[in-house]
């Protein structure tokens, strides 16, 4: 996927079989691991917080994470980590807008 159809993907806390992914704080944990990755303009003097490229959210009552495609260009291994996490746990991944609204809801 060289040219994304959206600048963002939404990883939903629901497996392909429709089961809720556990633990219930998985989105915050994943975003916490990715919190070190920020645009270069934020280097130095950062406060503790989530990366703008990997943000936990709730979408239609489901824990989710919004991932910006900019992460892929800034740190490809971090992008691969997030996408592999979704694949390994059989989570739904959808193109979305910046607010996490799926472009093609499942």
TrEMBL record:
Protein's name according to its UniProt entry: DUF3579 domain-containing protein
In terms of superkingdom, the source organism counts as: Bacteria
Q: Which organism is it from?
A: Comamonas serinivorans
């Amino acid at each position: 996927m060289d040219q994304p159809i959206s600048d963002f993907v939404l990883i939903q806390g629901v497996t392909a079989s429709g089961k809720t992914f556990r633990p219930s704080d998985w989105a915050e944990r994943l975003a916490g691991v990715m919190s070190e990755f920020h645009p270069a303009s934020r280097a130095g003097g950062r406060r503790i917080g989530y990366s703008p490229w990997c943000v936990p959210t709730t979408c239609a009552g489901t824990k989710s994470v919004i991932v910006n495609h900019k992460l892929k260009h800034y740190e490809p291994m971090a992008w691969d980590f997030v996408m592999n996490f979704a694949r390994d746990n059989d989570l739904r991944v959808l193109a979305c807008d910046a607010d996490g609204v799926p472009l093609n809801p499942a």
